[in-house]
Each structure stands twice: as C-alpha cells, then as structure tokens.
Amino acid sequence: MSLPTTSTATSTTGAPTGAGRRVFERWLFWPLALLLLALAVELGHRAQRIVTGRPYLDARATERVAKLAEENVKIEFARPSTKGAAPGADTELLPHPYVAILSRAHVRTLERAVAAMRDAARTELDVVIVGGVGAQVFAGAARERLIEALPTLPGWQGRKVAFWSFADPYVKEPQQLELVLYLTSLGAVPELVIDVSGRNELLIGSANALADMHPAYPARAQWQPLVFGGATDRASLDLLVTAWSNQREIAAVAARAKAGWIHCSLWAGDAIDRIEHLALERDLVLTSYQRRSEAAQRELVLRGPTPPTTPTQRIATSAGIWFQSTRDLASLCAARGIRFVVAVEPFEEPHHAAKKRSESNGEKAGAGRTVLLQAAKRLTELGTLWIDAAELAEAKQTPREVAAALVDEMVRRLAAE
Amino acid sequence: MIWPFAVLLGEFGLRGVLAASGAGYSAEDARATLTRLRDQNRDFVPRPNSDLPWNPAESERAERVVQPYLGYDIVGGLQLLEDQIRVSKDAPGQRSFRVAIFGGSVAQIFGDEGVPRLEKRLRELPRFRGVQIHWLSFGRGGFRQPQLQAFLAYLFALGVAPDVVLNLDGFNEVALGKQNASLGSHPSFPSVPHWAQLLARGADRPQTIALAAAIRDDQTALDEFAAWALDRGVERSALAGTLAVRRANSLRARCLAHFERYTDALRSGQARRALSGPALPRDFEDPIGASVAIWAEASRNMRALCEARNILYFHVLQPTLHDPGAKPIHADEERDGAIDADWLAGVQAGYPRLREAGATLAADGETFFDASRIFERVTEPLYYDNCHLNEQGNELLAEAFGAQLVEALNRR
C-alpha cells in the first residue's frame, strides 16, 4: 500500500494539475467565485449609488448607525415623575394599598405607632390625629395644650401622652377611616382618635369631581403622580416588550456594524433601513403604550366610579362621603373602646377652589359648609361627639389660639361624656 | 420501515406499563391536564365552569389595576361597582334585599355557583316573598384581610347599603400571608404576586421588561403548544399524550421560574418600601400567627361597622383541600391540587389557628360559621385545583351555612 503524496503537483507553468487541480475545484473554486461575485455586486452597488447621486460613504454610514444607536440607548421606558419630593425625603409620598397615599415620614410613624401600641407594658396615653390641612395645623399648635389637658380627664389622670399624627394637607375621607381600620387590624388600638376634617372632603372632593374623578378617590394632585408610572396591564406590557425587543435588535445590528460590516454597502444599506424601521416601530409602540397608560389611568385608576356632574351633586356627594366615613370611624372607635372626637374645620375657600367654583353656576360660597353642618348634626343623632371649629375660630387671630380653644372644648366635651 | 412498529410497540408498551402500575393512561385526563396547564399559565385562577371571560388573555375585564383603598381591583370589578352602587338604592316604593359577598376568588366563584342554592334557602322565609334579592359580589382573586374591611369601608363611603354582609374567607389569609412574608412583604399587605406589578415604579425598567418578555414568551409557547396538541388530539396516544403533558409541565415550570424572578425584580428598588408594608420584625417570626390575628381583628372591625348600620355580618371560614382532615382527597383532587410550598405551610399551620380564633370571635358574639370541616365525609371530588370549589362543592357549602344564615335573619 503506497502512502498518499504530500508534494504539490504543479506544471512547469505553475498551473494546477492533477490532485492540486481537484483540490482547487473542490474546495476553492466556489468560495472564490462567490467572493468575486460579492465584490462585483458590492462595486456595482457602489457605482449605482454614485450614478444615482447617492454615493455610499463608509464614514457617513458609520456616523448614521452610531447616531441611531445613541438615540436607541437614550430611549426611556419609564415616565419620569414630574411632581413630589425627592426619593427618600420625609415628604416623599408613597402609594399605600389601603390609605392610598402616605408620606415616607408617616410610614415610619405608622411602624412606630403599631410597635408602641402593641407593647402591653407601655403606660402612655396613645392619641391618634387624623385629617387634612386643619388637622396638621392642629397637631402642631395644640400639642402642648393637649399634653397638659388630656391627663386631667377621668381615667387618664397622670398619663403621659404619646401623639401619633397622620395628618397631611391632602388627606380626606375615607382615608382617615381606612387608616384607623388598618391600625386596629394590626392590633394597634389607641385611646383617643381626634379627627379634624370637612374642608378637604368638600374642596378636594369637588375639585376631583370637576376633573372627572370621583370625590371618594384621593386628591387627584397627589394620587395621579403615584400611579401614573405607566400602565402595567398585560396588553401594555406587550407593547413595552415589543419596544424593548426592537431596542435590543437595533443594538445588535449596530454592534455588527461596529464589528466591520459597515464597510459592505449592501449590508450597511439594509442595516440602516432595518434600524430605522425598528426605531420607528419602537417609537410608535412606545407612543401607543403612553397613550394607553394615560387612557387606562384616567378611566380606571384615576377616575373611580362615575363622578357627580352638577354643582349640587358634587357638594352633596362630597359631604355624604365625609358623613358616611365619619360615622363609620365613630362606630369603629366605639366598638374598640376608643374615644373619638371630630372637629369640623373652619374653611375659607382658597383661591383655586373659588376659581373652580366660578366655573359652575350655583356653587355658591358657603353652600358646602351648610351641607356639611347638616350632615354633622346627623352625627349627633348617632351619638358622635363633634365640634364646629369654625364657631371657635371666630375672633381668634392665630392657629395656636384656635387650637387652644378647640382643645379646651374637646376636653370639656370629653369630660362631660 | 421499522419506525411504525417501534412507535406501536412504544405506544402499547407504555399503556401496559401504566396499567400495570395502577395508573392507566386516560386520554381525557391528558386533555384536561393540557387545558388546565394552559389556563393556569394565563392567570392565577382558572374558571372552568364560568361563561364569564375572566381570563386576562381573552378579556380586559380580568386585568388588574391599582385601586387606592384595596391595593388593586380588576377592570370587571370596577365596572361592576357602578351597577352595584345603582342597585344599592331602591326606587321609591320598592324594597329589595341586598347580600354583599366578600372574600377572595373562592367567594367570587361562590357568588356565581353557590348563590342559587342560598337564595332558595332564603326564599323559604315569608319575608322574602315578592322581594327582589340582589347578590352583590365583591369577591376578588387574592383578596384577604385587611383588604376586605377596607373594601367594606369604601363601599359604605360610596353609599352601598347591603342588608347582609357575607364574608367567606380564611384560605388567602394564611396561604398568601405566608407567601408574602417569604417574599419580604408584611402579611397585612396585598398578595405580592397580585399587587407588585401594578406599582409601575419598577415595571418599566429595562431589566424588568426583559423578564416580562421572557414570561410572555413562555406563556405564548405553552399557549401555542397546548393549542397545537389539543387541536390534533395527541392525547389519544398514550405516548404522544404523555410527552405532551410532560412538555407542557416543563413550559409551565419555566414560566413560573421567570415569574418569580419578575416578582423579585419588582420588589427591589424604589417601590420596595411601598410594597413591603410596615417593618414589624417580630411578626416575621410568625407570619401565620400575624395573618390569623389580622384576620380576626379585621373581622371585628367589619362587624363593628355593620352592626352600627344594622347590617347582619355573617362570617364563614371557608373549607380548603389541604387542611389536614378537611376532606378525603379524591384521586382527581390529588392530581389537580398541586400547591405552592408556602401556601401549604400557611394552610396546615394556619387553619387550626383560624378555627381557634373563629371560636373566640363567635364567643364574643360574632355570627361565625366554621365551614372548614363540612366536607370531611364527602369522597367525591369537590375541588378543581388546590382551593377552588366546583359547582357541587359550592352548592354543598351554600347548603351547609344556609340554615344558619336563615336562623340569623330570623333572629333579627
């Protein structure tokens, strides 16, 4: 058996002969032919571009792909929050599943309050303050007076007072009710709940309704930014996923261009078309996503049930929500052995509300307050202790004076109960 | 030419082996399994007996959205609420009777399938002659205390005024409460897998979208595979049917793994504080105990709100399959009732404590019915998955507490 030869078989002229020719035909001819064909097509394509006045330039194509890739990286899926405090700040508002919104500071207050109130060894008199802007002012201004006055009441003599204020300017019913429900379901049962409310329920409730949002829903200005981060339902996620896939594909095509394929005018032309097509589709899909987000949020998350439409209905509904939730809060407190007092806030209507009011006929100044006081009188029939803070506020100059008068009246009424 | 014979040999060989092992091959079972896996992969709660399109893959009504006082709701629930508010107000001269049903998906399904039997019971009372009874279903998949008390308070604020509040709960509290704790959220917060994705804070981050894309690919793959297999009737062959079920199971497992990673991704970052709820480390040592305590305290709150409004509050502890001793488990239930490890731990450790806490509620005057043992002698299959009752189960449940409900109404 002879061994196969390893020598190169060539003629004296250098042309492949015998085994060498077979190797050439078998392994090299077609790749070379294809390479030559590709080169011819590439050159033809470049020539055609020159003839048609659109010469292909590697540098220009590189620049175009780089620009598209750069734009692609900058695409933001998340909608930046346009409102609210910086993340981590005490005043940063966070969504809460049961009270809708809690500031970061109040989330911490809640944690501390629950831990404290569940501690059976404590002897402090736990007082929870709930409500809107009036409650917030009251919590600050009345603190010292409450510390002095509450321990004079029968049963509470000598007790140190622990305040847990959840008041915030945007809070309105049923948020106060939901908060106390949540606290008590966690086993945190205070001894006194002070609710200063009425103003936000009417003003924010009516403003909500004017903005096509139900008065029972949280204040639109605070709620909207919290839930407006984009719809995350299945169809919306599909849109996001499509946009994301396009973004990835654009990046992959751009990476291939960077790897050297850009020098092929045929490939690069198609690649740029492909990137532009994908980018267009990505932008359209993201626009659809954003529109869908806005529509979904507006219709369902933001709006709630169909809001009332006439001025009278708006006031009646808003006052009705305040009444229903306040009576429930009173019932809850009674069943839990918690003493409860509600102060109906004095409210001069601020500028923005007056402006909105002027947009609708018949919404006269003071109409809301009258309806609210009528509702409050029904609370008396149900045995709920309520105080008209507006009466006490007359002839008082500062919030501290109003708060002091309110504390005195509360203590007097609680002592008489 | 050997292949046809090999396939035939494999087919009959497999059938023989399965028959010999006591688990003979059933084409019907294989088809049902494929359908179930496909349905389960679309959402959490399959509803095989319902005409309503609750499947998110088929209907927008089943989509979950953020709700300010409940954490989340479904689109269908928000739409239904409009009607429920309307029927809560009688027209002049009209007097109707309203029963509001609260709870999770079991209560939601009971609202369809158990209510006819319950209404039949109520109709035995003379007071209901000529009176229209409205059944207001507020059951939602994944809902549990303290969501139910929050829902009730919100409905009262909207002016919804039922005559009876029927609260059918227990399972989600301990099963999802335990799962929440394992996922780093407080047991009092809504179920993380139901709620987390809606806090859009993290959902549109690229890395989260990548996981969402993986889930969608898995769901589509299983959907398409199940459709392909079911259309061709592959279950008629033991070999093909077994392979198809195995493939579907594998796709489902892959999807669940991606879903877990997705949930983890959502919990991280900016939304973490909002998602996790109050930091109460002591509760984490015993999340099931915390869940049971919240269940009891929130029930007290619901009762307080109802009694002050002269509404009958009727509380039922729902039965569940994996509560030891609750029911002789049928082979079908064994097959279809696979349960997450956290849920199982929650049920097994939580149900005895729910019964104990329920007895205390009853001793304190709450109208409480412990239905956790009503099926202890029923051998027929009543569950179509790990917790949801079939039509017969719902009827038996209605029958079990219907008499007590009538009695409670008679006392008023």
Describe it for me?
- The complex is a heterodimer of chains A (417) and B (412).
- With 417 residues, chain A is α/β, with parallel strands linked by helices.
- Chain A has 3 domains: 25-55; 58-85 and 220-302; 95-217 and 306-416, Rossmann fold.
- Helices cover 59% and strands 8% of the residues of chain A.
- Chain A has 15 helices and 7 strands.
- Chain A has helices at 18-51, 58-74, 104-117, 133-141, 143-149, 175-185, 199-210, 220-227, 234-258, 265-302, 311-336, 351-358, 367-381, 389-393, 399-416; strands spanning 93-96, 100-103, 125-131, 161-165, 192-197, 339-344, 386-388.
- In chain A, the strands form 2 sheets. In chain A, strands 4-3-5-6-7 form a 5-stranded parallel β-sheet, sandwiched between helices. Chain A has a two-stranded antiparallel ribbon with strand order 1-2.
- In chain A, β1 (93-96) and β2 form a beta hairpin.
- In chain A, α2 (58-74) packs antiparallel against α9, α2 (58-74) packs parallel to α10 and α9 packs antiparallel against α10.
- Chain A is elongated and about 120 Å long.
- Mean pLDDT of chain A is 81; it is low at 1-11, 79-83 and 349-365.
- By secondary structure, chain B is of the alpha/beta class.
- Chain B folds into 2 domains: 1-40 and 193-276, no CATH class; 60-189 and 279-412, SGNH hydrolase (Rossmann fold).
- Helices cover 55% and strands 9% of the residues of chain B.
- Chain B contains 16 helices and 7 strands.
- In chain B, the strands form 2 sheets. Chain B has a 5-stranded parallel β-sheet, sandwiched between helices. Chain B has a two-stranded antiparallel sheet with strand order 1-2.
- In chain B, α7 (171-182) packs across α13 (287-308).
- The longest helix of chain B has 30 residues, at 238-267.
- Chain B is globular.
- Mean pLDDT of chain B is 86; it is low at 44-55.
- Chains A and B meet through β1, α3, α6, α9 and α10 of A and β1, α3, α6, α9 and α13 of B.
